[in-house]
Amino acid sequence: MATFLYKVGRFAFRRRHFVALIWVALLTLAGVGAAGAPAAGSSSFSIPGTEAQKAFDLLEQRFPGMSADGATGRVVFKAPAGEKMTDAGNKATVEKTVKELSDGSEVVSASDPYKAHAVSKDGTIAYTSVKYKVSGMELKDASRDALEQAGKDARGAGLTVEIGGDALQTTPETGATEVIGIAVAAVVLVITFGSLIAAGLPLLTALIGVGIGVSTITALAKALDLGSTTSTLAMMIGLAVGIDYALFIVSRYRAELAEGRAREEAAGRAVGTAGSAVVFAGLTVVIALVGLSVVNIPMLTKMGVAAAGTVAIAVLIALTMIPALLGYAGRKVKPAGQKSRLLGGGRAARKAAEGRPNMGTRWASFVVRRPVAVLLLGVIGLGAAAVPASSLELGLGDDGSQPTSTTQRRAYDLLSEGFGPGFNGPLMIVVDAKDSDSPKAAVGKVAHDIKGLKDVVTVTPAQFNKAGDTATITVIPDSKPSSVTTEDLVHSIRDAGAHIKADTGAKVLVTGSTAMNIDVSQKLNDALIPYLVLVVGLAFLLLIVVFRSILVPLKAALGFLLSVMAALGAVVAVFQWGWLSGLLGVEQTGPVMSMMPIFMVGVVFGLAMDYEVFLVTRMREAYVQGEKPAQAVVTGFKHGARVVTAAAVIMTAVFSGFIGSSESMIKMIGFGLAIAVFFDAFIVRMAIVPAVLALLGKRAWWLPKWLDRALPNVDVEGEGLKNLDRDTRDDDEDRELARA
To answer: Cys-Cys link to 566, which of 130, 346, 382, 392 (CB 3.0-4.6 A)?
Structure first.
């Protein structure tokens, strides 16, 4: 592989105009496609195989035109102090508002509170439910504006009016902190390379890669049913890995220049060595992201595949666009050890630097001398950070998890005040009585049995379809939607449904947002272990090929588990317990998003293997060339620690930038990935890895002979490059002088 990539690097350097033109053309094509594509809506949220989804599917068949998955808006009214919603003036205002809401082209219905018994017992609070034909993200701005205007008009009449439901759902905003993250990345790159030109290359190529990836996702969003969050997550991951991959190749290029190689030769060798590591690091990320498909949640699968595509683009750009741009930059990118005047570099400074070991060398030497102490400290520290993960509670966000400053949250609180906490999470019972001898009797038995269950406040009369063989019943629990009591009620209804089916032949299905949340959490929990086995197993095999070792990949996987558990602990402490929530802008604590653990496992595993590959391949390279195991660890840190540190700081900064998002899911993922990268890079890879390798010694690189013969030789260390014609360097220098 190293020889092939070496040729790719030299070709891209030599044919830089051709390579640059291709990438610019692809960016333009993707941009044009995105500009002409319809706006992305929300990805249809289906959970195949779950009871809640089966109920929705049945409703689509038996109640055509019901728009079971359409958006819902709840306009909640509260009378002024001393008045009631049944007073003539207040009633007239509500009826006028309902009529105004019913006129929209996308509106299916708007209920009359006084006919639908939607007035609280004390008469102070009432609400109208507005049902739409399309989902919240697909609503036209005119429909959303009309909903808000109706509320504003009712407020003008003296009522307190708040609006809840998913009808106000909008595309999340990431905020200014995303730009700050990129700015931090730029500063780190300038400090690392000491040159604005060298620092600008990784940023430029990462932005081109993300531009192509996100524009392609935007162009295909409508056709492939990709939600707006998909492009945000693809941008988050693509930007981080794009900068990192380019950073490693530029750093290796400067190191090759420092050894006296001509620029074209240095570009080829940089792509042949660091590029090989980029390919395998990218493969681990792609495996982890595409592996999310085993969960069998279409939205999660699409997010993973789209992000994986952006990572693949980042790898290709790093292998081709970077050497092309290095060709354009020429002598403006200096060899390693030579700083530009920007950072005060000069001959005296270089001589002083050459006489002392760098920070990576000093740190690795310390770890090699004290491996047990460093290992224990790292493991205990991450273990302590992981403790809150034992209290992990999973759920999907609703209006109750919104900040108290939002109208959605205030509407949620008003409904809880007027109708009880369970009113915000009604359960929809779908009774399929097609195979029953007496559908009405079967439905009546269902309603009767549910009324006798614990934690049930209200059971509404059954609504039959035209055929009379299917009915819906709404059940209002006594507890809030995210409570354990409500979850127990869902299971109790399903247990009762099994007995009812045996007695009457009618099938009872529980659905609604609360039941869907419970089913999603269960499905994700059930998929976590198979997902870990698949992804970690595939990546383990891949790393055996890369490192030609059994213990190094095993150590890499165990280190990843430590960092991801510590990161989950941090997420629980901030988003569930509320630690540092004010500092991070978390206005409302609550359960951690159901898909957060498995998504974090997938992404963090891929990124963790990035640093493992980049750092340990340098150690293996030194070991293969004859150095003792302990010295190889130090050599690996000498050449790789500075770059890996810079890459980790950049990735942490980029992910932290998404903490400013208005979408709680994006905010949580941004924080989780940022803290996970910090733990993995600075504690696992920088401390635990060298300590373990120092303790293992030669055993770290042991591989059974039969397996060594069976494995393909991918040559990540670039051994094959030593067989190249020694005269190539002289020929390149002659050509470079001729061009000058």
So the answer is: 382
Mean per-residue pLDDT, 478-497: 87
- Which conformational region is residue 462 in: left (phi greater than 0), alpha (psi within -120 to 50 degrees), or beta? beta
Residue 413 has pLDDT above 70, yes or no: yes
Residues 81 and 146 in one domain: yes
pLDDT digits (tens, 9 = 90+) for 80-110: 988 999 999 999 999 999 999 888 788 888 8
Please state, for a pLDDT cut of 90, what percent of the chain lies above it: 19
Is residue 726 classed exposed, middle or buried when 0-12, 13-18 and 19+ CB atoms within 10 A define those classes?
A: exposed
Helix/strand/coil for 50: coil
From first CA to last CA, the distance across the chain in angstroms is: 32
**DSSP-assigned beta bridge partners for residue 394:** 592
Q: How far apart are CA 233 and CA 250, in angstroms?
A: 26
Please write down the long-range contacts of 700-704, taking CB distance under 8 Å and 24 or more positions apart. 700/549, 700/551, 700/552, 700/555, 700/629, 701/547, 701/548, 701/549, 701/552, 701/620, 701/623, 701/629, 702/549, 702/550, 702/551, 703/544, 703/548, 703/549, 703/550, 704/550
Instruction: Name the most confidently modeled range: 2-11, 373-382, 427-436, 558-567.
Output: 373-382
* Global pTM value: 0.76
Give the helix ranges, DSSP H, for 429-483. Answer: 439-451
Task: Answer whether 618's CB lies under 8 Å from 636's CB.
Answer: yes
- d(CA 362, CA 350) in angstroms, rounded, equals 18
Cα 579 from Cα 572, distance rounded (Å): 9
Phi and psi for 670 in degrees, rounded to 5?
A: -60, -45
For residue 41, tell me if it sits in a domain.
no
Q: Are residues 701 and 563 in the same domain?
A: yes
Domain end (from 168, 200, 228): 168
Structural tokens at position 344:
């005060």
Question: pLDDT grade, residue 725 (50/70/90)?
Answer: very low
Using an 8 Å Cβ cutoff, are 395 and 517 in contact?
A: yes
* Number of domains composing the chain: 3
Residue 270 falls within a domain, yes or no?
yes
Mean pLDDT of 120-147: 83
| Structural domain range at position 678 | 381-405+512-717
Residue 417 covered by a domain:
no
State whether residue 621 is helix, strand or coil: helix
- Give residue 573's pLDDT band: very low, low, confident or very high (50, 70, 90): very high
Cβ contact 689:552 at 8 Å: no
Side-by-side strand order, sheet with 72-78: 107-110, 125-132, 72-78, 160-164
271 with 226, same domain: the answer is: yes
Residue 80 shares a structural domain with residue 199:
no
- CA 673, distance to chain mean position in Å, is 8
Separation between Cα atoms, residue 641 and residue 614, nearest integer Å: 9
Quick: pLDDT tens for 254-282. Answer: 888 888 888 898 898 889 888 888 888 88
Considering the domain architecture, whether residues 163 and 183 belong to the same structural domain is answered as: no
Q: Cα–Cα distances in Å, from 311 out to 186, 222, 230, 271, 676?
A: 20, 22, 14, 17, 19
CATH number of the domain where residue 301 is located: 1.20.1640.10
Q: Are residues 191 and 281 in the same domain?
A: yes
Residues 85 and 191 in one domain: no
pLDDT for residue 12? 93
Q: What is the model's pLDDT at position 50?
A: 84
Based on the domain organization, do 99 and 78 belong to the same domain?
Answer: yes
- Structural domain contains residue 328: yes
Give me the pLDDT at residue 352, please: 41
